[in-house]
Amino acid sequence: MLLRKAKNDGANSQTCLAGNSLRIPMPRINFLIKRRKHCHFPLHASLEAARKADPASFEFAILGVMNVPLTAQTIEKITRIMGGGDRVLTEKTDLLSYAYDASFGHFAPDVVCQVKRVEEVAEIIKLANKEKIPVTPRGHASGLSGGSLPVEGGIVIDVSLWNDVLEIDKDDMIAVVSPGVITADIDRAAKKVGLMYPPDPSSASVSTIAGNLAENSGGPRGLKYGVTKDYVLGLQVVTPEGHIIRTGGRTVKNVTGYDLTKLIVGSEGTLGVITEATLRLIPRPPATLSLMAAFGDIVQAGYAITDVLTSGILPAKIEFMDQSSIRAVENYHPMGLPLDAEAVLFIELDGHPLAIRDEAACVYQLLEKAGALRVQKAETSEEEEEMWKARKLVSPAIAKHKPTKISEDATVPRSQIPAFLKRLRDIKHQFGIDLVVFGHAGDGNLHPNILCDQRDWEEMEKVEQAVAAIFEAAISLGGTLSGEHGIGIMKKAFMPMEFDHFSLEMMKRIKEAWDPNGIMNPGKIFPKPGDRLVLRP
Amino acid sequence: MNAEEKTHLKKAEDLAYDCVQCGYCLPACPTYLTMKTETQSPRGRIHLVRMAAEGCITLDELSGPLDLCLGCRACEQVCPSNVQYGKMLELAKTAIQHHKKQSASPFRRFCEDVVFKQMFARKHVMNKLGSLLWIYQKSGAKKIAHMKPFRRLVPENLALFDKGLDEAKPPFKRNDGRRYPPAGERPVLKVAFFTGCVMEAVFHRINRLSIRLLQQVGCEVVVADKQTCCGALQAHAGEEETAKTVAKQNIEAFESGEFDYIVNNAGGCGAMLKEYGRLLADDPDWAERAARFSKKTVDISVILDMLGFKPEKTLPYRVTYQPSCHMANVQKVVKEPEKLLRSIDGIEWVPLHHPDVCCGSAGIYNLTHFHESMEVLDMKMADIKSTKADVVVTTNPGCLLQIKAGIIKEGLDGRIKAVHLVELLAEACGIDP
């Protein structure tokens, strides 16, 4: 659209963009311009040049391109599809409230549709496809990579109110759910009949299942049970051309045709809007048992993880806290954590009570042999709760320190965990940043968190470099950019680091085949030439 | 925006920056649950405060979503980043209130002045209003007002709450300035009793019962003279200066005697008293005195629990408990009321599914935003009904009135009873003033 036109225009982009933006009514421009302060959209090279040449007119221009306001007639048509204006938001304060997620960007849509029926979604997308309006699906926007940000404005399809179906079929061991159902509610419903929906992202109490599916979310239990994609049997999806399609079915085995289910899961809302899902449930393990081990050396803790995982025992979770997070928690809420330790591991075993008691004894020995300073076993459920409380307090404790938290989820193969920890320690010293490492260590999905203040530009510049260094480290160790957060806008600049030209090109071809007009969640996953991570205003 | 508005908004923005927009607060927010838009959620409101501070929206645009916030602070309990939402809300509201005063008509300014400064903030005015209410109830005027031909004349919201009102304070009774000896020979504790403005005027009986209970567990109770309204309504409406004035008056009133504790029985008021330290932290003459006052402030349930309250009677009720939001979220008094209730023989305890969701009373929210408040109340009543309880216990006058209104609205009058915790405890001890 306009953005593309501007790009093709190269040298003339500045004037061309400014010209377009003039059509926008004045008050709107005002708030869009201010918004730039928060907009961290990686810039196209020609736009970057425009910014340097004339910052004032650039601000004016870029917002004009990304937000071509919808006409009153289009809004009218949308309202008619939605059967009235009750679930159609167009007020400025409303639009600004749908401009963010839990990541960094800030992009206001032109209209928010709070859909509740698949026909509404199909009709809106048909209209959007015809009029070439960007469409961004959104759940509760708890994502960390910018997947639900309407970076080119347009329509936000909010599925969070659509939570009327949550059916558990005990005999088929499946759940059929509406897109807006909260993830934790599915597991809660399954629990009532002795089943379990294993994926447990830390936002499970608020995240919608559609958001989890779109981002292919993980969680601590991913170590033993896998992630969201491992529990999806079938989907109902509205394609970018407005067709309602079904993928997969209700069976565990299904090899009929291409596996479109797996293609949609993790496609970050770029291939359609998920409107219903059939999920696989498994028998719920009857008991859990937890251990905690403190290590004097962070790399030693890494080797201990490998020792446990190669011993024939597969714990449900292995979580990790480094010294900075231990100290932060202890400062925040004293609970007797070992301050002399450089790392602490939390291990949860689940299964038959007798089996896990045996396994716990075995793990205990392994940890001691690996050089743990102390190993502690939770004997009662209260003790177990107290033990895990420490891990849960990491986020609030480190937030006390500095206001901005950049949470990365670069992931390495399990055998490389010690090496990755070593590299992270070096990066921390090299850039002089506040780097805290905690997370799901068992599956190689460490969460290096950088604590900073987004108002401190000098610091943010260092952070940008450190983030790039973390990605380089992960990929050079045979890992990947993202284990569970997704690419969105936060990591797309680094895609060429992980994929060669044709690998990325095949993904693009799929996208173009599904979405010929490029209306579905534009600006995500695929880098544009010159894209880079920008965390500064 | 003038300089003063900017300073307040800047302070609010600094607190808003602590928010990482994870969205964990969404399911905890009553107005998000009823209004179903991000704009009416803590995350949305925090973001809009930032937008206003950056000049993207005006204070008038900001005031809409902030006015619709109940201020229950349930979001603070679930926030993993410890955003001080209540403080931020008050700062932003102070900026808005400032701004509104500039543009408000002289009549509106006069009305607000009367309500916040001349009415709630003055104890004798509230007492007189209580007396007028008593005359209205006793003279038969209340009955007439609720008769069919007159019903149309009374606004729906006032009529609903009026029906649920307790017997008001008779004009000839007063507690102020009196001293009540302990039940035993020597006092275990010497406590001052904070009467509160609405509690004293409308729920006078509950205050008398509270004093009797305190006496029973061995306290010498003094009802300090010259005490006044706690200032919560003013503070939550952005009338920071008035709130500070009444805070100072209360601190002075309770400084005269040597008290071990300053006891109150209204969750919302108690929370405000607990926050005097924060309210006056920047005032060098008052900071320390305010902090000392806040430290001594305690809810009656804590004292009764501490001094080993012993019920004598068996009460055959199925009881559920709706905590006052500010008692739970600000005072952090959660376990004591439940413990006291469960100590009564014969009581069948049935907890609510969502005790941490506000009932929609929220100070004067149920008068200023009647319909929004009723939507929140409907949610609460559904929860209460599902417990099949026949007594609902609360710990704050606003909540009590709201639940009573809910019972009338649902047509459950006579089948479910709403009471203050103190009423049930007094009944269990056979106390009747």
Main sheet makeup of chain A: 7 strands, antiparallel
The first-level CATH class name of one domain in chain B: Alpha Beta
Spatial extent as radius of gyration of chain B = 21 Å
- How many DSSP helices of chain B? 25
Do you know the CATH topology of one domain in chain B? Rossmann fold
Straight-line distance between termini of chain B: 54 Å
Can you identify the CATH class of the largest domain in chain A?
Alpha Beta
Strand composition percent of chain B:
5-15%
Uncertain runs of chain A with pLDDT below 50, 5 residues or more? 1-48, 54-67
Average the pLDDT over all residues of chain B and give the rounded result.
Answer: 89
Would you write up a description of this structure?
The complex is a heterodimer of chains A (537) and B (433). In chain A, a hairpin with a 4-residue loop joins strand 5 and strand 6 (174-177). In chain A, the strands form 4 sheets. In chain A, strands 15-12-14-13-17-18-16 form a 7-stranded antiparallel β-sheet, sandwiched between helices. Chain A has 4 domains: 2-66, no CATH class; 71-284 and 488-537, 2-Layer Sandwich (Uridine Diphospho-n-acetylenolpyruvylglucosamine Reductase, domain 3), CATH 3.30.465.10; 287-397, Alpha-Beta Plaits; 402-486, 2-Layer Sandwich (Alpha-Beta Plaits). Chain A has helices at residues 2-9, 13-21, 26-35, 45-53, 55-66, 72-81, 92-96, 118-131, 183-191, 209-215, 222-225, 260-264, 298-309, 323-332, 353-369, 381-392, 394-399, 417-431, 457-476, 495-498, 501-514, and strands at residues 88-89, 111-114, 135-138, 155-158, 166-169, 174-177, 195-196, 232-238, 244-248, 273-280, 282-283, 287-295, 317-322, 343-351, 374-377, 404-407, 434-440, 445-452. By secondary structure, chain A is of the alpha+beta class. Chain A is globular, with a radius of gyration of 24 Å. Helices cover 39% and strands 17% of the residues of chain A. Residues 1-48 and 54-67 of chain A have low confidence and may be disordered. Chain B has 433 residues and is α/β, with parallel strands linked by helices. Among the domains of chain B are: 3-103, Fumarate Reductase Iron-sulfur Protein, Chain B, domain 2; 311-428, Rossmann fold, CATH 3.40.50. Chain B contains 25 helices and 9 strands. The longest helix of chain B has 19 residues, at 85-103. Chain B is globular and about 60 Å long. The N and C termini of chain B lie far apart (54 Å).
